[in-house]
Structures are given as structure tokens and as C-alpha cells.
Predict the structure.
Amino acid sequence: MYNQDKYEAIIGLEVHSQLLTESKAFCTCSTKFGDTPNTNTCPVCLGHPGALPTLNEKLVEYAIKMGLATNCHIRQSSIFARKNYFYEDLPKGYQISQYDQPICYDGFIEIELDEFSTKKIGITRIHMEEDTGKSIHDIDIDTLLDFNRCGIPLIEIVSEPDIRSADEAYKYLEQLRQILLYLGISTANMEEGALRCDANISVRLRGEKNFGTKTEVKNLNSFRNVQKAIEYEIQRQIEEIESGNIIHQETRLWDAAKHQTRVMRTKEMAHDYRYFPEPDLVEVFVEDKFQNEILNTLPELPLQKKKRFIKDYSINNYDATILVNDYDLANFYENTIKCFSQPDKNKNKLVSNWIQTEVLRILSEQNISINELNLSANNLSELIELLASDKISSRIAKDIFPEIISTGKNPNAIIKEKNLVQVSDDALIESIVKKIIDENPDNVQKYKNGKNNLFGFFVGQVMKETQGKANPKIINKFLEKYLS
Ligand SMILES: [Zn+2]
């Protein structure tokens, strides 16, 4: 690893996010993913001469939503611009984007560095634009083009160069992803290309005021690749400098298979996009009323929710992180807690444990979300009540859980029906313990001679006598009494 005391990395991220609108940014074509190639197209998104764009209001609404969630200023009057370049997946020969008047600017988000500290990462701007088509490189045929993606609305979120490590970049990106999901404006799925990230990276000697020459790294199509590519590029730049070479301003591609970045184009080859105002669209004027309406729909954001869960429900940072990571799971947790008649830290923790083990296991096995699982908050809270009050053992809770899900019956009904209520009758359990001890004199002798693991044998025998219903705490109490 590079010498962290000597060098410091300066990183800024440019993140593109596809928005979940039903129709495209400037025409009424569907944005549905996975349709037959080139079926969701029209003269506007194919750039036929004379076809005129009309702005989708949802694009503006979602961009403002993201801006407000990331503490940005919203520009009351902004305009679109044409970004001109030639590429086969861009039939118009230009992309409609925003240039010097982005709709959102000067914001920030907070990332958690560890359990105790957060850091603000500045957001330079968020602007609206349209996606390009998709090139499919087929070795046997040729390059094929699918224009279904042409004109799908995007926002580009540009950060300040406030990020100092691959780890911080990862956390920033993860926070953005969660915010997009909480707002419900993007699937934010990196593997499917709904979230894309380019990184601007430079290094400088620690204490140095000026930035070093930066490179832009592209093709970071997973969270892991973002981290690996940044690590690699920091290391590469430091090695170049240490060997007396200079860093060239260039765009580099991350090659995940070879685990390295390589030059894609140099500064001399950089595009001149010849931006100019889009003459076919009028300025976007954001009325206060519109902005306030959006503000009123903003949900509680992930980091706020996490802090509140820790404070209100007395769960630890680790538990809160897992619960808050999924918006619907966080709501399910909270709804379950709300079903309890009395607030109880112990039960809050039990619900959290149960979700993290039993519930998440089933979700991952069946590859479904919590909303698709046939489990009501009420039924889970009832199960936890039974467990917390020792009416059933955790063994029985686990045994009946699949039935709660498959039938939707409430746990109380199931345990009554199957006669599974835990036996906590001291006198009864004591008599069974005595009986088991009387019947196994050899094992009692071995235990007393130091074979401690026989304790489990005795517990098992008592359980067998009671069909698994005896309260383990009471069994332990009497076994300890009679075996010592
Ligand atoms: Zn269209």
C-alpha cells in the first residue's frame, strides 16, 4: 500500500442515475426496461429532423426532490443545453443536458465514517439530462444498437473533491444510492446501469495546498469496482510521481478483469462539446408552490432514520445499519415495534434479531422483498411477545414461523391449536428432573466426575419428556440444583 502519511488522495465523483419515470424525458415513449430493442422509440428520441421535444414534468420533479434531499439550492429558472458529440448510440448528434445553469447546486450529504463521526461531502451540482442508446457488441454479428434507452431521463450528481479515500467514495455512493431508493426516484441498481459512476482522482503531498493533475476513471459498474479502481489509481499515480514522472490529464478505463486502469483518451483527444442553449425547449421555471409541494413529500432520509432508531429503540449501530439499509424493512421493523402495548428495549432487540436472522434468511432464499413476504407486523410482534414472556421457547418460535408465513394465522392461534405453550410449572419440571436423574445413575456419576458436557444430555431428556415444551431456564435451574 502507498504511504498514507506522505500522500493524500483527492477524489470527486460524477454519478448518473436513471429516473423511474414512466415515459422518456422529452417524448411519450415508454421507459420500460427489457422490452424488445428499438420498440420504444419515436421521431423525437430518434432525432428525426423537425421533431420537437416536450419536457416531462416528472424529470423536473425528481431532480428537485434529489436536490432538496441533498441540501441543494434549487435554481428558480434554469435552461437546457445541447452537448454535441458524434457517437453511434446518439442519433441526434447531441444530448440534451444542462450546462451552466443546473437546476440544483451547492448542496451536501453526510456520510458516516464510523459509529461516532460523520463527514460532509459537498454536492457541486445536480443537473437533468437524457440517456443515450445502448451499443451491444456482438462478436459474431457486429455492433448492434438499441435506442430504447435513448431519451430516458437521468440526473447527474457531481460532488466536490471532498472525498479522500476509496472507502469514503464507497460510503458516499452507498449513501446516494440509499437516498435515491428512499425517494423512490430510481432503482439505483449499478449492475443494471441505473446508477453509473465516474471518478476524478488526483494525489498530492500531504500539507500541499494545490491539487495535483487529475485523471478521470470510467467504467466503474459495481460498488466493488469503484473501490478497487480508486485504490489502483491512487497507487498508480503515487508510483509515477515517486519514479519522477508526471501525471497526465486523461480519461482512463477500469479493466475489472485485469484489475487495472488504462488510457482511453488523452487531453488532446478530449471532446469539445460545443455546448449551446437548446433552442427547442423553453426555460424551466420552478414556482415556489411546486417546490414546496415536493418538499412536503420528502421522506425521512436514511441517516436521520438510523440515528432516530438508535435513540428511540435503543438498538445498536450495527442493527440500525442493517434495518435502515432497506426502506421497506425499516418500516416493517418500526410497524412491528408499534404493535407492542408497552415500549420495551428487550423486545425491540428481539425483533431486530429475528428480522436479521429468520426474516432475512427467508427473503434471500426466496429472492423476495419484505413486502412480498406473507408476514404482518402484527403477527411478528405477537410471536416476539410470546417469546419475551417465556410462553414459548425460541425452538418452538422457529418451528411455527414457517406456518405463520404460509397460513397467515396468528401465533397465539397456532400454539393453542397445537398445544405448544411452554411449561413453566416449577413443581412439574422439578419432578421430571428428579425422575431423569434417578433413571440415569451412571451418567450422573460421570457428570460429577467432570464430564460437563453431559449436562446437555439431561436437558435433552427433560425436553423429551415434555415434548420440547419445558422452559429451559427452569430445567437448568433444577438440574444445577440436583447435579451439584
Ligand atoms: Zn420517443
